[in-house]
Every structure is written in structure tokens, then in C-alpha cells.
Write a structure and sequence with these properties.
Elements lengths: L9 E4 L5 H12 L3 E6 L2 H11 L6 E5 L5 H15 L4 E4 L14 H26 L5 E6 L12 H21 L4 E8 L5 H4 L13 H12 L9 E4 L11
Parallel strand pairs: 1-2, 1-4, 2-3, 4-5, 5-6, 6-7
Helix pairs in contact: 1-7, 3-4, 4-5
């Protein structure tokens, strides 16, 4: 274990079957962390675990829908059983559904808010309950530049990510006296697997590799225990963001 960063000892990573979550898991494993990786797809999680080449003493995978209270309770119970109290939480799970607001279904709204915001709340609550009595911890929420500058036809996703920003600030405030730091990383366009396999926008806008966001995430996670890197926006230099309307 890298003793310079004791808060990286045991990590729960949601949305860990691919993309940013998997990239962060790989880097945390390299630093000696023990990881509980969760996602909704068992097939994707098994593939992720194989690519990480880590044994059960360092990696556990849990199929979980983080919008479910019982699923989150089980996720953290697995972490407790195998690795002890969680010291790091990465809230990366998310979902996207869009379209003109007058055509947006309640189901689509609930699916996006459930994965992005309700899941972040449930996991944060579970982490706080453990961290408050075990020397503190660190929580990193993966937001989006949509939390600050929305795109057209993204009412659900934008609302969810604004909510993640608010949840971050509220829980960072509550965590002060408990030794818990809460941060939010806002990525711009990232060339995750979903985009690599899509013709929708992979060529239409500038993209950055997953490794760029993983590097930023690790910088935030490796702050000294008494320092909180509260917010960061990381995006391709040429992406329309500053001044986009």
C-alpha cells in the first residue's frame, strides 16, 4: 500500500465496468488499494475484472443498481466483509436520456436522476456512516460540464449533474468536522467505449482520452488528508465550453 495516501486503502467505485470508473480502478489498484467495483451489467463487470488482473484479496465485483437503497446497502456490506470500512468512494455511475423537455418521459427522468443523483446520495450516505468513525475518508463525485453549461435537450442529465454539484458542496461542508473530503470532477467530452462504438458524436466534437480524466481524478484523490480539491473542470482544449450558449 502506498502509505503516502492512507485514504486510498479501500475504495468503492460505482459505474466501474468501463470508461472512467474502470480507469480509476486500474490506477488505484496500482497504488495498492483494495477495490469494490460495481455496475449494472454482470458481463461488463466480469470483463473489467479480467482486464484488471487482480485477485479476490484486492478486487471484488458487485452487480448493483445504485438507485436502489437495498442494492447500495449490499454493496457496502460486501466491502465491509472483504476489506473493512471504506476509505474512498468514487461516485461515477450515471445514465443519459434526453430530448425536448415536452417529450421527456417521467421514466427517462427517473432513470437519469436515479443513476446520477440518487445513487450518489445513497452511496455517499453509506460511506459517511463508515468514514465518520474510522478516521475519515475521501469521496470523489464525477459530475459533468453540463452541471455548469447545459446542452440543448438535456433537462434530465443537466438537472442531475447540477444536483451532484450541490450534493458535493453540501456534503463537503458536513464532512469537515468528520475528516471527510468531498470533491467533484467535471469532465468534458471523453472518448469512452460508448462513444467509440457510436457514430453520434465521436467525430463531431473534440474528445479526450479516458486517461486524461483518470489523471485528474488521481490528482484530486491524492491530496493530503487535510486538503480538499473541491472542484475541477477538465475538457479538450478545443471543446466549445467557455462562452458556449
Amino acid at each position: 500500500m502506498d502509505h503516502h495516501y492512507p485514504l486510498l486503502k479501500t475504495a468503492v467505485i460505482t459505474g466501474g465496468g468501463s470508461g472512467i470508473g474502470l480507469g480509476i480502478a486500474r490506477e488505484l489498484l496500482r497504488h495498492g488499494s483494495r477495490i469494490v467495483l460495481c455496475g449494472r451489467s454482470e458481463e461488463r463487470l466480469l470483463s473489467a475484472a479480467k482486464s484488471l488482473s487482480a485477485g479476490p484479496e484486492q478486487l471484488q465485483c458487485v452487480v448493483a443498481d445504485v438507485s436502489s437503497e437495498s442494492a447500495v446497502d449490499n454493496l457496502f456490506a460486501v466491502a465491509d466483509e472483504h476489506f473493512g470500512p471504506v476509505t474512498t468512494l468514487v461516485n461515477n455511475a450515471g445514465n443519459f436520456d434526453g430530448g425536448p423537455v415536452q417529450e421527456l418521459s417521467l421514466q427517462a427522468w427517473d432513470n437519469v436522476l436515479g443513476a446520477c443523483l440518487t445513487g450518489a446520495f445513497l452511496c455517499t450516505r453509506a460511506a459517511f456512516r463508515r468514514m465518520q468513525n474510522n478516521g475519515g475518508g475521501r469521496i470523489l463525485n464525477i459530475g459533468s460540464i453540463s452541471a455548469q453549461r447545459p446542452r440543448m435537450h438535456s433537462a434530465a442529465y443537466t438537472s442531475a449533474k447540477f444536483g451532484v454539484q450541490g450534493l458535493t458542496h453540501a456534503t463537503a461542508l458536513e464532512g469537515r468536522g468528520l475528516g471527510i473530503s468531498v470533491s467533484c470532477l467535471h469532465p468534458g467530452n471523453v472518448l469512452v467505449e460508448r462513444r467509440e462504438n457510436s457514430e453520434l458524436d465521436s467525430d463531431a466534437e473534440p474528445m479526450m482520452p479516458v486517461a486524461a480524466i483518470v489523471s485528474a481524478a488521481m490528482a484530486m484523490l491524492q491530496m493530503p488528508a487535510d486538503v480538499n480539491f473541491l472542484d475541477a473542470v477538465v475538457l479538450p482544449r478545443d471543446q466549445a465550453y467557455v462562452g458556449r450558449g
